[in-house]
Amino acid sequence: MAIAEERSRRLSLWSQLQTSGVTDLEPGYLRQLGVYGGAQGIWVDKARTRSVSKDGNGITVSILHTGLHYPDDLSDDGMIYHYPVTRRPPSRDAAEVQATKNAAQANMPIFVILPGEKRATRRSVKIGWVVDADDASKQFLILFGAQEPAYIPPAPISSPFQLVDNSPVGTAQTKVRKGQQRFRFHVMAQFGCKCAVCSITHPSLIKAAHIRGKADKGSDDWRNGIPLCSTHHDAFDAHLFAIEPDTLSIAAAPGVSCESIGIHALKLTPTSQQPHLDALRWRFNRTLSRWSAQQSD
To answer: Under CATH, which architecture does the 3-144 domain have?
Structure first.
């Protein structure tokens, strides 16, 4: 079976699903169609896809996202999917990761299986494309759509930097902003999955914070981002600490100590790259203005 034939089969199945609806479907129906393998996170269907993969690991058909462990990793236009870490032999997990990478290499769509919208025992389905993988943070980036999406990888560190994004801002009612998963993936891939001001590294607690926020027309360039844990993301938004752009030293707000907000590092400590100087300068000046205004009240 050729790759083109398998791709055509999956797109045909997606058209069939759209005809009957893609929410609150019976799991048995999805198994019958061949788009769902049950409770496992990654379903490869090796009997069908082994022959179209060069390494014998097959090509992932579907992934299951329950939302229990990483609820913030899903948005309307895409998702971040974490590499499986199970109690099975490591080779089994590694084979499923490779099968999902094979989907990206073959430009092969996969089905994303989600909980039913009205009934938890049923399933909803999206079709997506694996557009990137990062072995360091152990994450895939999957973008949704019946057609393969245009994907721009993270900008090289030396490329021109755009701090401001003048595109229209969406409504505040949207829970997760369009493009947020792409931004988060790029930030984690470039900086590492570690809070930049404390020692927390668990992926479910790390957020991708904009240095110049979207409310101030900040861009989604990863160099306008920084990985922060949930606590320090809130503290950053509240201007409880600042990052000196030239030295990367961390300073607490007047009347606040770094220790009181859980910061024990003297300097910014991302595990890999550093944010762009223009972004840090903009944020530092904005924070100093806030501090000055508070002291004059």
So the answer is: Roll (2.30)
